Automatic annotation (TrEMBL):
This is Calcium-binding protein caleosin. It comes from Fusarium oxysporum (strain Fo5176) (Fusarium vascular wilt). Belongs to the caleosin family. It comes from the Eukaryota. PANTHER family: BINDING PROTEIN CALEOSIN, PUTATIVE (AFU_ORTHOLOGUE AFUA_5G13750)-RELATED, PEROXYGENASE 3-RELATED. GO terms for molecular function: calcium ion binding; monooxygenase activity. InterPro entries: Caleosin-related (IPR007736), EF-hand-dom_pair (IPR011992), EF_Hand_1_Ca_BS (IPR018247). SUPFAM superfamilies: EF-hand. The chain crosses the membrane at residues 62-81. Keywords: Calcium, Membrane, Transmembrane, Transmembrane helix.
Length: 184
């Protein structure tokens, strides 16, 4: 096993304790798609399942308050069924998210940085910053993120608009430094 620093923990060293700044990588992790690796933070016991309490506890550990963390429980409510479809047509009564099928929970009105198979597109990531970094500071301000969100909205997709807004708002609250979400 090899230890490496998680991208989230490098960006927010003051918000995470020492217990959460390292992630264990094993041979199983090498077979995960980039999107699956992106959500590994929430799968604390590495069983391939993210429970609602994992989501709540993860947000608390990232430094979010009680009400925001309770609100984060909407994530398993909306993402559980699409990820469950790889296992059964019946909804999961515990609203668990299945990491191996997380790509099935990809919603519309997003940036397209992750494709429908869960692969990361570095070109699209770079293009996003080149196009929307109006301040030239190597990051995105709240106004830049608002324009990005408005540009990505697909017609007749209010659920996708809402999910994208919540994701960008959470990203801004978590990662912004002096009002800018840096690319690194």
């Amino acid at each position: 096993m090899v230890e490496y620093h998680n991208d989230i923990s490098q960006s927010t060293p003051n918000r995470l304790g020492n217990d959460y700044t390292k992630t264990i990588v094993n041979s199983k992790d090498e077979k995960l798609s980039p999107l699956q690796k992106h959500v590994q933070f929430w799968d604390r016991d590495n069983d391939g399942i993210i429970n609602p309490w994992d989501v709540y506890n993860g947000f608390r550990e990232l430094g979010f308050g009680l009400f925001f963390s309770i609100g984060s429980l909407l994530i398993p409510v909306f993402f559980s069924y699409p990820t469950r479809l790889g296992h059964s047509w019946l909804p999961d009564p515990l609203f668990r998210i299945y990491v191996n099928d997380i790509h099935k929970a990809k919603h519309g009105s997003d940036t397209g940085i992750f494709d429908f198979d869960g692969n990361f597109s570095p070109e699209r990531f770079e293009q996003m910053f080149q196009r929307f970094d109006t301040s030239g500071e190597g990051g995105l301000t709240a106004d830049d993120l608002w324009r990005l969100w408005a540009k990505d909205r697909c017609a007749a997709d209010p659920a996708g608009w809402t999910f994208a807004f919540m994701e960008w708002w959470t990203t801004y609250v978590l990662l912004q430094e002096d009002g800018v979400v840096k690319k690194e």
